[in-house]
Amino acid sequence: MTVLILTSEQDVTADMVVAQLHERGVPLVRFDPGDLPGEGALSAEYVRGEFRGYLSAGGRVVSMSGLRSIWMRRPNEPAAHAAEPSAWLSAESGQALYGMLDCTNARWMNDPGAATKARQKPWQLRLAHRSGFPVPATIITTYPQVARQFAEQYRHVVVKTVSGKPPSDPPMALPTTLVPPDADFAGVAAGPTLLQRYIAKRADVRLTSVGDEQFAARKVSEPGQVDGRYGDTGHVWEPVEVPARITRAVAAYKDLANLAYGAFDFAEDSEGTWWFLECNQGGQFGFVELETGLPIAEAVAGWLSFTAE
Amino acid sequence: MTVLILTSEQDVTADMVVAQLHERGVPLVRFDPGDLPGEGALSAEYVRGEFRGYLSAGGRVVSMSGLRSIWMRRPNEPAAHAAEPSAWLSAESGQALYGMLDCTNARWMNDPGAATKARQKPWQLRLAHRSGFPVPATIITTYPQVARQFAEQYRHVVVKTVSGKPPSDPPMALPTTLVPPDADFAGVAAGPTLLQRYIAKRADVRLTSVGDEQFAARKVSEPGQVDGRYGDTGHVWEPVEVPARITRAVAAYKDLANLAYGAFDFAEDSEGTWWFLECNQGGQFGFVELETGLPIAEAVAGWLSFTAE
């Protein structure tokens, strides 16, 4: 039984898991959906109630009936490397590939439907409530007046993107930013705006959960630092124990969201409370493992190798 | 409790359901995601474990806690009508809107995640097998040799798009077409190709299922007509009784796919067998109702109005 890894060619995080799978002697095929059609090829047959399919890449062929698990690491857009790429060819190739993979009994990390839903920030906040996390007060609004009132009520407020992605045309970084007290909120009407109570944090926490396992790392913040993704503070990620309340909440969240993998970000305040900021269902773990030695790649390889008896 | 209808302004099918809801005295709000931000506005608040949200359009405000059901009819892309539209503004607006709607307890016709999965043609074929439909032998392949063998084996074979959509750049109609016996299959390598055994049909059947109800209509074909969507034959849609096997298979399919609504297309062969061609989770029903008088809009209104006691 084979593990299928869907990712682009340059992917150090995938390399770490591939090494672990090799060590376990588990067969794997690495496939970039961007190579379909071209270097990658597929065929699926639906005849007399039977389904047979296979996928080939780099001379390796994998049968759909022999798939153990599928890891959606960082796949390119289908047909991205085609001789004549087009939105239509990507749609056709994506339907053919993911539609065929959905016909198998393989377990997904993560299921594509669960992944799509899990990316929705408003739903994340609601789910975090239900799972028992402390969540900073948040609004998402197109009403300038609602934004102004929220900022007045909480005084220290940050603004973030709703989708979590910065604009790409033109490319632009949008770090989480403190809202100045004299801000003009008129622009809120031009696009939904996410405002959140600012947590004065003493550390960032990244918790990576793989199946039932949880790996947490902590990095001390500079006083007044708002977005830990930008700027080097000289501090490094260190392993940290997970409070019992958080362990339970992470398990509940992943269960409700039907996620096999999730990377949770928290802000640790001066009293040691971990405030839920977000759960990235496809979050990186390579940098955490390299700095902390936490065996996350091994856990991913273990989950992908698992065979129900 | 209010019904939310997500659709564009010009939508006769939605108008038919709106009329039925008015007759029942059920409050409704019609909202075009393309109007957000702009004529449409929203606000969601996640504070101390509580969620409150509302949506406003054309002077009507609907509270998320007062939503009974959501009908995804034919919504525009979020922010499509914005003063400065962009892919990023659409992503932000879509996340804000659909993420907020996912926080409610409203029932969806259809649930967006189920809809996405249900659009995958290869998965439809597999599901049709599992549900007990007769399904014409089909392949989806990028191997010219596999395509050639399939065409030789079945002799009468049609080619279709995989995703069901024609290319839009440049715009092009791609009707289902018979493959000539001397076809050159080399082009199959350039994009996944769907080939299906040709069913010599005497009629097209469109079965519209709403909740537990099924409405079938039948239109006689011209001999040799391949794609019923193109060309006028002079025949009209007429109501037809559903064979028991099909009734059971439709119910099984919708259950497995988690769909509240589905429009099933069949080819009826000379022996009266209904062959599954596809299930369009968002298929039109206006033209069927207008020609047959089948009360589909009433059934949709009924499903949307339902309140669990």
Description:
The structure is a homodimer of 309-residue chains. The first copy, chain A, is built from eight helices and 16 strands. The model of chain A has no long low-confidence stretch (mean pLDDT 92). In chain A, α4 crosses α6. Chain A has three domains: 108 residues, Rossmann fold (3-Layer(aba) Sandwich), CATH 3.40.50; 111 residues, ATP-grasp fold, B domain (D-amino Acid Aminotransferase, Chain A, domain 1), CATH 3.30.470; 61 residues, Dna Ligase, domain 1 (2-Layer Sandwich). Helices cover 28% and strands 30% of the residues of chain A. Chain A is globular. Chain A has a five-stranded antiparallel sheet with strand order 14-13-12-15-16. In chain A, β15 and β16 form a beta hairpin. With 309 residues, chain A is of the alpha+beta class. At the A-B interface, β3, α2, α3, α4 and β8 of A face β3, α2, α3, α4 and β8 of B.
Helix and strand string of chain A, N-terminal first? Answer: EHEEEEEHEHHEHEEEEEEHEEHH
Name the CATH architecture of the largest domain in chain A: 2-Layer Sandwich
Percentage of helical residues of chain A?
Answer: 25-40%
Radius of gyration of chain A: 22 Å
CATH 4th-level superfamily of the largest domain in chain A: ATP-grasp fold, B domain
- How many helices of chain A in DSSP terms? 8
Distance between the termini of chain A: 12 Å
Within the largest sheet of chain A, what's the order of strands? 14-13-12-15-16
